[in-house]
Amino acid sequence: MAYMPGNLPTFSGTADIDDSVQAENTAWFVLLTIAPVAGGPIRDCKVYLDMAKAATGFAVVESTATIQFRVARKVDGTNWRGGSPTTAVSGTNYAARLQEIDVGNVDPDEGARIEALMSADATADMEIPFVGYYEGPIAPTVTAVAAA
């Protein structure tokens, strides 16, 4: 049977990019972490980031600064390792758009998180609403970074 997003379990929330914490072009920072629970692997996980939230979204706050995303995994239970990043996109080019992140499969002895890297210091705090779809028997624990 083919799955459509309406048939899949979801998780959602809002991650924050805090201007006082984010360091431009020097370090990847965490937006949200996905942790499957014991006996609850997740498969085919996709996360959609709303980049144009009214008043406080990336596309509203930033114009020329770019942002990239990547999925990092903790496959050995200890160390986070980042995967290939998305193409850098400016706030202007994110107007009325979202970013799709393919997280893939995550087993209970692993962890996955979505990280971001900006080309310049954040102009102001931002909110990034998200929704994720996955296949799995038990909902994972999803922790979004909250404003400091």
In a nutshell, what does this entry contain?
With 148 residues, this protein is mostly beta strands. The chain contains one helix and ten strands; from the N terminus they run E-E-E-H-E-E-E-E-E-E-E.
Enter the CATH topology name: Jelly Rolls
Per the principal axes of the C-alpha atoms, what is the gross shape? Answer: globular
Number of domains: 1
Q: Which stretches are poorly predicted, pLDDT < 50 over at least 5 residues?
A: none
Query: How is the biggest beta sheet arranged?
Result: 6 strands, antiparallel
Strand content: 35-45%
Arithmetic mean pLDDT: 89
End-to-end Cα distance: 43 Å
Helix content estimate: under 10%
Count the strands? 10
Structural class: mainly beta
User: According to CATH, what is the class?
Assistant: Mainly Beta
CA radius of gyration: 15 Å
SS field, number of helical segments: 1
CATH architecture field = Sandwich
Element pattern in H and E = EEEHEEEEEEE
How would you explain this protein's 3D organization?
This protein has one domain (8-144): Sandwich (Jelly Rolls). It is 3% helix and 45% strand. The protein is built from one helix and ten strands; from the N terminus they run E-E-E-H-E-E-E-E-E-E-E. Strands 2, 4, 5, 6, 8 and 10 form a six-stranded antiparallel sheet that branches. A four-stranded antiparallel sheet has the order 1-9-3-7, with no helix packed on it. The protein is globular, with a radius of gyration of 15 Å. The mean pLDDT is 89.
